[in-house]
Design brief:
Helix 1 packs parallel to helix 6, helix 1 crosses helix 11 and helix 3 crosses helix 11. 24% of the residues lie in helices and 25% in strands. It has two domains: 198 residues, FAD/NAD(P)-binding domain (3-Layer(bba) Sandwich); 205 residues, D-Amino Acid Oxidase, subunit A, domain 2 (D-Amino Acid Oxidase, Chain A, domain 2). The protein is of the alpha+beta class and 484 residues long. The chain has an eight-stranded mixed beta sheet, with helices on both faces. A six-stranded mixed beta sheet has the order 9-2-1-13-22-21.
């Protein structure tokens, strides 16, 4: 075994786990990934039999470089975009689709977030990639560069002056084919030498294997020396890395907080609402109109505000897939499901924490989500306003305190024996080609890491609970048990 090489057990074979595993293996470690779902057999396609709830198993995710004042994420997105384009080379079907992203505003004026984004794009010499609909020079430039047809006009409802919503077309944006990308990275990992253990018993995390530490460290009396899977087998490791969900919990599924309760302060399981429509290829008008060649990814940050005036978020839509599926997501209210927390969880709210609903309860979306989506359709996709949904589902994410990931060694364990790399694969999917490299840098070098994301992703014990995580079980987003 080479000097400094470690045996690393990665729990979870989604966006975070795959990207981390490839990067760690390439940096000289011996990596094994544990995953309860048979992704090696179903190629990361949604599988009704396995009841997969992982956000990584999804036909598409948004790619964006627009981050307002968060210049560090803009730069990470640009680094990732370059990597996606390299991955596309030689593939029959692109993993990153450069269809652009149209960010429709709540009114005929640009919002503050867009102004901040444009400022940062200007700062990095990227302003020419952005086209503001209300800016005559930008429209002319968009026409000249072939983007003009995607600067779509939509009239503001209940106005007599026929004003249209302003919008920004980001030519850097588009979509990633998430399931296909995960399957691609699985194959890359295998070629790099990463080992995989799949299966509901043999691949499912059951518990850490802990021993007393031989080195006395303040409040670090235990060292993790491996993990036990649900089939009872013990797997030795120098570091166990939590990078997703793998442990089956019959009543609720599982996310990172259930695997590592110490994360319960930092992360919360929350659900976005997804619906789809199916376009018949024989309907050539709709097939052409909503193709990625003609239609961009589109977002509208104008869901109705909550009673306290808080912004309740946005709705987004993708161009149709090659199979004719149009997916619409409502992230206005990220629903929670609070239940009694197990004994020993270090952070709870009134003795409860949010966990995903059972798979069968996630096949419908709450009335608030359907109402918001129908209002969106009436303005932006009128052909589907009265149409039946093809599918509906809740997609569970792990929301963090500030929408940044948690990638760091976990305090409380000696010898840096537990590492965490998580925080929402919906957000993380766009960074998949570079996420693991930054995480591996932190894994290998901690505070000496070269990654500019180190300070943003570190363990944040004293950060205030915001981003809705402060609401708790009494908050308006809590669905309780079931959706009946």
């Amino acid at each position: 075994m080479a000097r400094n090489q470690k045996r690393v057990a990665v729990i979870g074979a989604g966006v975070f786990g795959l990207s981390l595993a490839v990067a760690l293996q390439k940096s000289g470690h011996n990596v094994t990934v544990f995953e309860r779902h048979q992704y090696d057999k179903n190629k990361y396609e949604p599988d009704e039999c396995e009841k997969v709830q992982a956000a990584s198993v999804d036909v598409n995710k948004i790619f964006r470089a627009s981050y307002g004042k968060k210049l560090h994420y803009q730069r990470l997105a640009m680094e990732s975009r370059e990597a996606w384009l390299k991955l596309n080379q030689g593939l029959d079907d692109a993993l990153f689709v450069e269809c652009g992203m149209l960010r429709v505003q709540p009114s005929e004026k640009l919002g503050a977030l867009e102004e901040e984004t444009l400022d940062n794009m200007q700062r990095d010499g990227l302003r020419g990639t952005q086209f503001v609909k209300s800016n005559a020079d930008d429209r002319t430039r968009a026409e000249r560069l072939g983007w003009g047809a995607k600067l779509l006009d939509f009239e503001i409802p209940d106005r007599t002056d026929h004003k249209t919503f302003d919008a920004v077309l980001d030519s850097l944006g588009g979509l990633t084919r998430c399931s296909a990308a995960c399957h691609h990275y699985y194959k890359l990992a295998v070629r790099a030498g990463v080992k995989f253990v799949f299966g509901t018993e043999e691949g499912a995390f059951e518990s850490f294997i802990e021993e007393a530490s031989s080195v006395v460290e303040a409040s670090k009396s235990k060292v993790v020396v491996g993990l036990k899977t649900r089939d009872g087998k013990v797997h030795k490791a120098d570091v166990v890395a939590i990078a997703g969900k793998s442990k089956p919990i019959p009543s609720a599924g599982s996310f990172s907080t259930q695997l590592l309760p110490r994360l319960s302060y930092h992360l919360e399981s929350a659900a976005g609402s997804l619906v789809t429509f199916q376009i018949d290829p024989g309907n050539t008008t709709l097939w052409d109109k909503y193709s990625p060649e003609k239609f961009p990814v589109m977002t509208w940050k104008s869901a109705p505000r909550a009673g306290d005036g808080k912004d309740t978020g946005s709705i987004y839509v993708f161009p149709r897939t090659p199979d004719g599926v149009i997916k619409i997501g409502y992230r206005g209210i990220k629903f929670t499901n609070f239940e009694k927390a197990p004994d020993g969880v270090p952070f709870t709210q009134n003795g409860q924490w949010s966990v995903p609903l059972p798979y069968d309860d996630c096949k419908v979306v709450p009335p608030q989500a359907e109402e918001a989506i129908r209002a969106f359709l009436s303005i932006f996709l009128p052909e589907f306003e009265k149409a039946d949904f093809n599918t509906t589902k809740l997609c569970w994410y792990t929301d963090s305190l500030d929408n940044s990931f948690v990638i760091d060694y976990v305090p409380g364990y000696a010898n840096n024996s537990v590492f965490v790399c998580t925080g929402g694969s919906g957000h993380g999917a766009k960074f998949m080609p570079v996420l693991g490299d930054h995480a591996a840098d932190i894994f290998n070098n901690t505070d000496n890491a070269a990654s500019h994301m180190r300070s943003h992703w570190r363990w944040r014990e004293d950060s205030p609970r915001r981003n809705g995580l402060d609401e708790g079980p009494a908050g308006p987003r809590n669905m309780g048990r079931g959706l009946e």
